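User: I'm putting together a small comparison set for a docking exercise, and I want a reference complex before I start. The sequence is below, and the ligand is (2S)-2-hydroxybutanedioic acid. Could you produce the 3D structure with the ligand included, as C-alpha cells?
Assistant: Of course. I'll restate your input first, then give the C-alpha cells for the complex.
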Amino acid sequence: MKAPVRVAVTGAAGQIGYALLFRIASGEMLGKDQPVILQMLELPMEKAQAALKGVMMELEDCAFPLLAGMVGTDDPEVAFKDADYALLVGARPRGPGMERKDLLLENAKIFTAQGAALNKVASRNVKVLVVGNPANTNAYIAMKSAPDLPAKNFTAMLRLDHNRALSQLANKAGVAVADIEKLVVWGNHSPTMYPDYRFATVNGQSLKDKINDADWNANTFIPQVGKRGAAIIEARGLSSAASAANAAIDHMHDWALGTDGKWVTMGVPSDGSYGIPEGVMYGVPVTCANGEYTRIEGLPVDEFSRAAMDKTLAELEEERAGVAHLL
Ligand code: NAD
Ligand code: LMR
C-alpha cells in the first residue's frame, strides 16, 4: 500500500462537497491503492461546522479502507497543511437569473485568503483545482496570492463543460461518449466558452465530417453547452452538484494518474500560445502524464474559432481587471 496523501476540500459541507468526499475516500479520484487523509474546510458559523461534523460522521460510517485520517476545521492553514491536493469548492453559488461573474467580488476575497494560506503551508507540489465560481478568475486570484508556489499548480475546472459537450456530441452523432476523442473547450467557464469539435474523432474518423452541420454547431451546440449550468439551476432550483463533483474527480484523477494520450480540457495559466496572454487562466486541451499536464500545441485557429476564443478571453480580461485591486 502507498503512503497516504493529504487532500484538502473546501466547502466540504456544501452540495458539491457531499457528492465529492465519499468518492475521494473510496479511491475513485486517486486510485484504489492510494490512501487519503481528508482535510475539510468549512465556514466558522455554527451551522456550517455542525453540518461538517455530520459529513465526517457519515464518512466514518462508511469504513472506507483507504480513508487514513480526517481533519475538519474552519482554519485554511489547518486544512491546507502539507496538502498534496486542494479542491477549492467553497464559495457562494449563483441563483436563477445571475451570471457566474456576478459572484466575482463576493467570492474573490475567499480566494486571496486561501491562496495565501496554500502559499504558507501546503506541499510545494500541491495540485490545486478551483471549482468555486467564477472558477477561472478565482483560480487566477489564488495563483497570484501564492507567489511561492509554481503557477502551473493552479487550475480551474472546465471539465464539466468538456463532459457536457461530449454527451451532446454523442447524442447528435449517435455514437458512444467513450469513442469520442480530441474535444476542446476553450476559455472561461461561462456562457462565452467555446466548445470546439473541429479536431474530434470517433474511432479515428472525423466527428465534424459525421455531424457536418454548421448551423447546429453555432446555434444549438455552443449555446447549449455554454448555458447548461443555468438550465440545471432553472430545473433543480440549485446549481449542479453531482455532475460538478464528478468533473472534479475526473480532472484530479487525470492530472494525477494520466490520460494515456487522450485530450482533456483544463483551465491553466496561459503560456502565451494561441494568442492568449501569459498567465490568463484559460481552458485548453492537454494530455497528462507523470503528474504533469502538457498543452496540445499548434492547432490551427480558423476565423470562427479566433472570434470565439477572443470573446471568452475578453471576458476573462474584464474579470481580471475587476479584481486587480485585490491582488
Ligand atoms: P453550496 O452553497 O451548497 O456549498 C458551498 C459550501 O461552501 C457551503 O457549505 C459554505 O458554507 C462553504 N463556504 C463558503 N465560503 C467558504 C469559505 N470561505 N471557506 C470554506 N467554506 C466555505 O454550493 P455548491 O453547490 O457546493 O457550489 C460551490 C461552488 O461551486 C459555487 O461557487 C458554485 O457556483 C460552484 N460550481 C462550479 C462548477 C464548475 O464547473 N466550475 C460547477 C458547479 C458549481
Ligand atoms: C455549472 O456550470 O453548473 C456551475 O458553474 C454552476 C452554475 O452557476 O452554472
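The longest strand covers residues 281-289. The chain has two domains: 5-156, 158-323.
User: Thanks, that's exactly what I needed.
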